[in-house]
Amino acid sequence: MPAPHPRTHADYDRLYYRLELEPGASAADIKHNYRQLAQIFHPDKWRHPTAASLHWADEQFKKIKEAREVLEGYWLAHHEAPASRAALSEPQLARALDQVRDLQLRRERLRGELDALQSEQARGVAELTRMQAERERLASELVHLRDEAARARASEAARREMELAQQRSRERAAEAQRERDEAEAASASEAASQAASDAASHATRDAAMAAGPWPPARHALRDACFARLDDPSRGWLITLSGIVVALIVLFVVTHWIVFSVFDATGGWRWLGDTLQAVLIAAGVVFAGGFAWAQRGFYRADRAGRAHNVALPAHETWQRVNAALRGTGRYGASWRIESCTVSPGDAGFDLRAVLSYSTKADADSQTNQTLRFHCRAQQTGEGGEGDVGGVRETRLAWGFTVEAPTWWLVPAAKIVRDLRRRVEAELAARV
């Protein structure tokens, strides 16, 4: 929409002032100043992109554009500058120039203040980001301290339990000493010989533990078979072959048993086939469960062979005790039968038992028993080569299963859970 035509000479003068020109300037000066001001006030060129600042710059751009259109239109129509009002006197002109310069200085000062405000805003955003990062770091430290406090409480509870076990062991030792003192000379001699044999047995076990795997292998055939089954290169092939052979043997045996009673070609052939299928299924379940249980016992024995752990002896005892407390099935929990601690917490000999019943009735007879035996001996102080100077402990454990053959699967589950918890506790460094 074209700008309205000025009514008075003062209006033309104001248009010149909008373009920062003196009244009567040429068309070339009008175009030159318009381009310079447009580089400043054009919305795409404005350096302070806030809502209020953009609105003000847009209004200024519209005004200088209106002034340029009106003055250039006058020049095209008359080929001369519009007549100005009476010339100002020298003092008035100087005062007007001072006002213009003052306005320009004020404009520059406002621009500097806007830049300072933007810089302050950027610093505030950076400070807020830093405070958020600091808050997250403090929260993570708080969680870490809480976990450390929980571990410290668990360690203190384990130490108290170890002290109680030591006290019970000393009381039993004192009671046994009193009984031996009151016994007859023959009983005392027999007890002395028994103690000597026990000492020799312990010395033999300690020598075996230091020399090689502990406990000694009592199932050579089982260990040899499952050692080959766990071979990653050909274990799957041996497993598949064993399954095929077992199925063939089951089929032949059940066929011989069933059809020695039924006629293989008579009218009861269908009943013999059904009975044979049932016997094969039962044999597969029984043999598979037995093989799975034996594999669990083999892995537990292999994991319990004597090896070094990067923990001091007393902390190893706490970890093993924590694993025992966390493992229980069928409403039963591990009970420590005896715990002998070496002087100076340099080692321990722990025996625990778990008696359970797989029936729901709490008064059922517990004829399934697992015994856990763990021994550890500290090998020495951590040297310069050790990480953080951590002491090492020679550790070995083993299981004894007292359960009927048809209850080996529940016993294997308990042994597997305890093995995993012991390994996890020993592997988790504080």
Explained architecture:
The structure is a single chain. With 430 residues, the chain is of the alpha+beta class. The protein has helices at 9-18, 27-41, 51-78, 90-182, 185-211, 220-229, 235-259, 269-303, 313-325, 408-427; strands spanning 307-309, 335-341, 347-356, 368-380, 392-402. It has four domains: 9-120, DnaJ domain (Helix Hairpins), CATH 1.10.287.110; 157-211; 215-278, no CATH class; 304-427. The chain contains ten helices and five strands, in the order H-H-H-H-H-H-H-H-E-H-E-E-E-E-H. Helix 8 (269-303) runs parallel beside helix 10 (408-427) and helix 9 (313-325) packs antiparallel against helix 10 (408-427). Mean pLDDT is 76; it is low at 198-217 and 382-388.
Summarize the structure.
The chain is of the alpha+beta class and 430 residues long. It is 64% helix and 10% strand. A hairpin with a 5-residue loop joins β2 (335-341) and β3.
